[in-house]
Structure formats: C-alpha cells, structure tokens
C-alpha cells in the first residue's frame, strides 16, 4: 500500500485533544457507515439468491436462507418451480433451508449460453486490444514517423465522443458489412480503444530505451524487438489493460443491445438479464434474477480480488494523467 | 583529410536515412490495425452521425437505396429545439411532441446530473480524505469495499436496486425497522412515483400548482414553468441514488491517489503556522486537488449525461416520462420508432451539451483558482 501522508500527525504529536478524538471517532463512523452501504446490497443479494421465491418476498432481510416462522416454499398452481415442496416439509420454524431453485430457474433461461458468450466476447476483445493497443502505443511512443503527433491527438480526441453518438452510424456500418447479429460485429469495433493506446504509450515512454537500441544494433527487426524485448517488459501495463478491457466488455450493455438483439444465441449476460426483465414486466421472479446477478458478478469479483492492485493503480494512473 | 574519412560520413548519412525510412514504415505498420478500426468504426461514424442528423432516414430502408431518405437540412434540430420547421413550400410544420419530448428529456437529464455529480464528488472527496489519515487502519479493506460496486455490471446493479426498492422490499422494511412511525401505508413507491421532489417539498409549505399564480402556466420550450421546477421524480431519485452509490468508489480512488501525492511537508508547514484541521483541508487540500477535482467532475458529467442502462432496465423512461433521458430518447427514436435522422440529431445535441458543460466547469474551476 502506498504511504499515506499524515494530515493530523504533527498536531496530534503535541496534544491529543478531545476534539481530535471526536474527529477520529466521526471518521470511523463515516467509513463504516459507507462501507456497510456499499457492501450490504451484495450480501443480501447472495443470501436471497439461495431462498425460494416466497421467502425472498416475505423475508428479504433474513441473511441466512431460512424461511422462518413457517414461510412455505410452495407455489401456486401453474407457477414454475424446480422442486415444489409441500408445506409440511418446510413449515418447521427456523429450518435452515437453502435452495438452488433460483439458480435452477435462471439456468433454464439459457443462462449457460449467455455466460459462454460473455466470456468469449470479453476474452476475444481483451486479446485483440492487448495486441493492437500496445502496437499502436509503442509506435506513438518510440517510432518517429510523419503524422505521429497528429495521430496521437486525434486518438485522444476520440475519447471525448460519447458512445451514444456513435451508436447509429456504427449500426449502419455493421449492417452494410453484414456484421449485425454476429460475433465479429461486436468484437471488431471494440478491438482497439483509445484509452488502451494512451495507457500503453504512457507506459512505453516511462521505461528507458537503451535495451531496445542495443537489440537494434544487433540487427533485430522492429517487430521481433517489439515481440521479444518490449512486450515482456510491459507486463504491468498489459495486466492493467487486460483487466480494464475484460471488465468493460463483460459489463458492456449498449453495444450488445444494438448489435446482438436479433440473435438470441449470441446474447451476453447483461443483455439476457435485461431482456428477461422486460419479458417478465412487473412480476419478477426475484430469486432467479438474484441468482443471475450473482453468476454475472462472480467471475469479475474473483478477478477483482486477485488483481486488486492493478485495478487501483490503473484508475489512479488515469486520474493523475487527467 | 584522407580519402577514407571523407567517404565515411556520407555513407553514414545514407544508412541513417534508410533507417529513418525503415522506422517510419514500421511506425505506420504498427499503427495499421488501430487506424483501420478507428477509421471504420469511429471517424467515419462521427461524420455519418452529423450527416444523418440532416436527413429524415427511418433506419429501416437500406441506407444506400435510392430514395431511402431525403436531405432535410436543419429540420430535425428545428423540430427538437423550436417545435416546428418550415417545409419546401414555406409552410410551417408543427412538431410540438418532438420539442416537448426533447425538453422533458433535457430537464430530467439535467436534474439527474445536477443531483449526482456534486454528491458523488463531495462524498468521494470526504471518504478519500478520511482514508488518507495516518491513524486509519484497514485502509485496504475500506478501499476494496468502496470500489467493488464500480466493477459490477450496470444491468446487475439495476436489478439488485429494483429488488431492494420494491414497495415491500429491503429498503422500505429496513426504514420501518429503524423508524416505527413509517408504516406500510406511507411506504415510498420508489420505482413508480412520478411526483417531483421539489413539488413535494413545495407542497409541504402549502405551495401548489393552483395557489402559486398564473405565471406557472406559462410555457417555455413546450413545458410549463411549474413542470420545469418539478425536480427529479421519486423514481429518478432512486436511479440517482443508484448511480451515486456505484461511482463513489472510482472517484474516491482517484482522489486518494492524488492526496497521496501531496508531500507531507506541506501539511507540516501549515500545522507549524497554527492552522487547524479544517483550515488545512480548506486552504491546502482542496486547492491542491483542483486538477483532480476537474478530472473527476468531467468524468462525472460525461458519464451522467449519457445515463441509459439503468433507465432501460428499471423504468423504461416512466413513470409519466419522468426518467425519460436524452440517451434513452436517442435509443427509442432510432431503434424503436424508426426516426433515425431525428435520433442522430438528438445525439449530436447531447454531444454539444456535454461539451459546453465541460468547458463551463473548466472556466469555473480556473476562475476559482485565481481567487
């Protein structure tokens, strides 16, 4: 963790007044309150995804999957339920009674397919971006060619254009290229991104160029040099870029909505969940939706906890450059 | 000078020229994939968006077909901003609904932005400052807790919030558990209440549509003045809470990184001069963070003005169009109502609005720096 700069320390060294103690207490209170507000929705989501629908509706605040006080996991005639259990089985008070009905139901809604699609899109886009962004970033950082600066500022400028403006023309171009409702239609337009090029350029400029020069004198070609020498040095930047790309593509909603709506087999998790919500209208099957939310979030959560440092560094980095 | 030494430099120059050429070629080759994709999916689309906004294309007829659309000049913009346009014969064609829709969307989006951007910036700053204190333990835990929502899909967050904010749901029952006076009949209908919060507030003071006087019925840009001062609806407020909740973490991490770059000696000097904690915050931390604040606010403005996913999932623009935003209007007109030209014009206007707001806040931040 980076070293924090003291704000109070010099003052505190002289006197530990009741006021500063009160401020410290207030600080803790604010942090704990906000941490609870940010985290509890997820905790409740996970807990409720393991309940049957009546329990979700009647006792959303119970953190362990029990239908307390005789809530019955029975369903009306005609309602869908993985295993319709009778009242006698479940009506005992405070029975610990987790169920996978929600998961069962959302899996029946083609969720495995959405999961595979989302993973495929996210991985494909990420790999392409790692290649193309670092090639372009390297060229802009190290290679002298006419128009270098102009290209850089043009690319930087495109970061300001909101995706919603590009929505319609992209749709038309993809339609003309017969790429609507195809895998490539979603992947190719996203295969390069300005932020990634910017990130890689900044990184390449921050490392010394002597090693490359030595390799060039030895007669290595530019591409071999890039592939064998430069890329291995860029692992931290590539990791940050990979994580941001993967997360962004995994969660992307607008582009899949425009490009893939027409082909059910290609839907991604966010797209599938949102269409399912639209189909249900007001009477949502909450246990299934919460189960779907957990499955959509879980892969990212694992990546986040494992690569946390890169998330935070990447965000800080982009912020400081801004 | 001998023969040999005179030749040497000349030879080196040619190889250097060759090297330069090689380097330039390599540069272009390295850029090629990025350039092609940018050209086809970014640069051309920007041009196409501007051109399409000057047509009446419906989005269904193939765009290169003969007669797929006609060029209508600024008619789409005129419809949106003035509520009419003049046709070729010089007749005025009314388009009151288009104008009204656009200004409803603009009103909703503006209330949304004005609510979310300052709130998330200030909360993120406060949290970052507390997290930066030396006495704090478990800094990593808190940073993780605050940042985690930012990595989650907007659709998933929307579904979770819908579930929590249903009438008999987690939020209402929790409030009830905390405040016994909040009974079932008073439960706020978070997801389906079109009343504006300012209207509700004014009502508390006995000010209503009828008592306020005739001026409120005057129409400005298709909406009555009373409609303009509604504030965000309850449902829009729910989406505002959602987005503030989601983005605080990102903004907080950016602020924290900037805070950690301020050298400790600055604070020490101020403390020796006898400044108290508040003065240090007000006179040192805030001014030193100005570039970061500018960045955070810009990020917030650009993101918030484009609010779409949450509206699409939670409310579809309702109830009573109170969550109808500009981005949602673009989507609806373009892909649902077959008015691509109009949608393109709306998108361009949104771009201009974002641009102007960003410039405006830049000027404000700069002016404040001079005080």
Average pLDDT over all residues of chain A: 81
Q: Identify low-pLDDT runs of chain B.
A: 1-8
What does the overall shape of chain B look like?
globular
Please provide the count of β strands of chain A.
0
Oligomer: heterodimer
Strand content of chain A: under 5%
Count of DSSP helices of chain A?
Answer: 17
CATH superfamily of the largest domain in chain A: MetI-like
Order of helices and strands of chain A: HHHHHHHHHHHHHHHHH
User: What's the end-to-end separation of chain A, in Å?
Assistant: 22 Å
Largest sheet of chain B: 2 strands, antiparallel
How many structurally independent domains of chain B? 2
Task: Kindly report the CATH topology of the largest domain in chain A.
Answer: MetI-like fold
The top level CATH class name of the largest domain in chain A:
Mainly Alpha
Description of the molecule:
- The complex is a heterodimer of chains A (322) and B (371).
- In chain A, 70% of the residues lie in helices and 0% in strands.
- Chain A has 322 residues and is mostly helical.
- Chain A has two domains: 84 residues, no CATH class; 214 residues, Orthogonal Bundle (MetI-like fold).
- Chain A is globular and about 75 Å long.
- The N terminus of chain A is likely disordered.
- The N terminus of chain B is likely disordered.
- Chain B folds into two domains: 41 residues; 234 residues, MetI-like fold.
- In chain B, α3 runs parallel beside α9 and α14 packs antiparallel against α15.
- In chain B, the strands form two sheets. A two-stranded antiparallel ribbon of chain B has the order 1-2.
- Chain B has 371 residues and is mainly α.
- The termini of chain B are far apart.
- The chains are: A mainly alpha (322), B mainly alpha (371).
- The interface between A and B is large, with 107 and 122 residues.
């Amino acid at each position: 963790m980076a070293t924090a700069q003291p704000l109070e320390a010099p003052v505190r060294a002289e006197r530990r007044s009741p006021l500063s103690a009160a401020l410290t207490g207030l600080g803790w209170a604010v942090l704990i309150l906000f941490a609870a507000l940010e985290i509890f929705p997820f905790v409740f989501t996970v807990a409720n995804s393991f309940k049957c629908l009546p329990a979700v509706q009647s006792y959303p605040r119970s953190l362990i999957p029990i239908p307390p006080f005789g809530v019955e996991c029975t369903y009306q005639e005609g309602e869908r339920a993985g295993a319709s259990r009778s009242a006698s089985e479940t009506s005992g008070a405070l029975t610990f009674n987790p169920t996978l009905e929600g998961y069962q139901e959302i899996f029946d809604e083609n969720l495995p397919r959405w999961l595979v699609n989302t993973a495929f899109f996210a991985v494909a886009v990420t790999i392409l971006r790692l290649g193309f962004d670092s090639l372009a970033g390297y060229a802009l950082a190290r290679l002298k060619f006419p128009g270098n600066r102009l290209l850089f500022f043009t690319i930087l400028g495109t970061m300001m254009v909101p995706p919603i403006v590009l929505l319609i023309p992209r749709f038309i171009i993809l339609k003309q290229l017969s790429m609507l409702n195809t895998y490539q239609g979603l992947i190719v337009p996203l295969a390069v991104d300005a932020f990634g090029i910017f990130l890689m350029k900044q990184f390449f400029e921050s490392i010394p160029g002597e090693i490359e020069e030595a390799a060039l004198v030895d007669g290595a070609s530019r591409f071999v040099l890039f592939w064998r020498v430069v890329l291995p040095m860029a692992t931290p930047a590539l990791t940050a870029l990979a994580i941001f790309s993967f997360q962004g593509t995994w969660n992307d909603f607008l582009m899949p909505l425009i490009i893939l709506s027409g082909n059910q087999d290609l839907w991604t998790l966010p797209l599938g969940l949102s269409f399912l919500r639209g189909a249900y209208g007001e009477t949502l099957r909450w246990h299934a939706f919460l189960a779907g939310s957990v499955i959509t979030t879980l892969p990212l959560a694992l990546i986040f906890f494992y690569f946390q440092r890169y998330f935070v560094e990447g965000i800080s980095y982009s912020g400081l450059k801004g | 000078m001998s023969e040999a030494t005179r030749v040497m430099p000349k030879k080196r120059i040619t190889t250097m020229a060759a090297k330069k050429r090689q380097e330039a070629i390599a540069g272009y080759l390295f850029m090629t994939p990025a350039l092609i994709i940018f050209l086809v999916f970014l640069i051309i689309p920007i041009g196409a968006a501007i051109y399409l906004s000057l047509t009446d294309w419906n989005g269904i007829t193939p765009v290169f077909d003969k007669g797929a659309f006609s060029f209508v000049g600024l008619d789409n913009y005129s419809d949106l901003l003035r509520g009419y346009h003049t046709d070729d014969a010089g007749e005025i064609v009314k388009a009151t609904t288009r104008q009204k829709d656009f200004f409803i969307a603009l009103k909703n989006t503006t209330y949304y932005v004005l609510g979310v951007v300052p709130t998330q910036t200030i909360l993120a700053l406060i949290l970052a400052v507390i997290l930066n204190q030396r006495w704090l333990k478990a800094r990593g835990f808190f940073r993780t807790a605050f940042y985690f929502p930012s990595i989650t899909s907007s659709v998933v967050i929307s579904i979770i919030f819908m579930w929590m904010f249903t009438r008999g749901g987690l939020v209402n029952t929790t409030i009830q558990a905390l405040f016994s006076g909040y009974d079932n009949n008073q439960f706020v209908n978070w997801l389906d209440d079109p009343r504006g919060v300012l209207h509700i507030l004014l009502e508390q003071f006995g000010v209503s549509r009828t008592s306020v006087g005739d001026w409120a019925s005057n129409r400005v840009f298709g909406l009555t003045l009373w409609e303009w001062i509604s504030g965000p609806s309850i449902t829009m407020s729910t989406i505002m809470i959602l987005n503030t909740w989601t983005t605080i973490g990102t903004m907080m991490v950016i602020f924290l990184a900037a805070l950690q770059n301020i050298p400790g000696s600055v604070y020490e000097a101020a403390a020796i001069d006898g400044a108290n904690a508040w003065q240090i915050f007000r006179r040192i931390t805030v001014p030193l963070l100005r570039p970061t604040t500018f960045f955070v606010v810009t990020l917030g403005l650009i993101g918030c003005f484009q609010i779409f996913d949450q509206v699409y999932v939670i409310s579809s623009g309702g109830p009573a169009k109170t969550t109808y935003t500009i981005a949602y209007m673009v989507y609806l007109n373009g892909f649902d109502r077959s008015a691509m030209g109009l949608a393109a014009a709306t998108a361009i206007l949104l771009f201009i609005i974002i641009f102007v707001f960003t410039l405006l806040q830049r000027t404000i931040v700069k002016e404040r720096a001079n005080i």
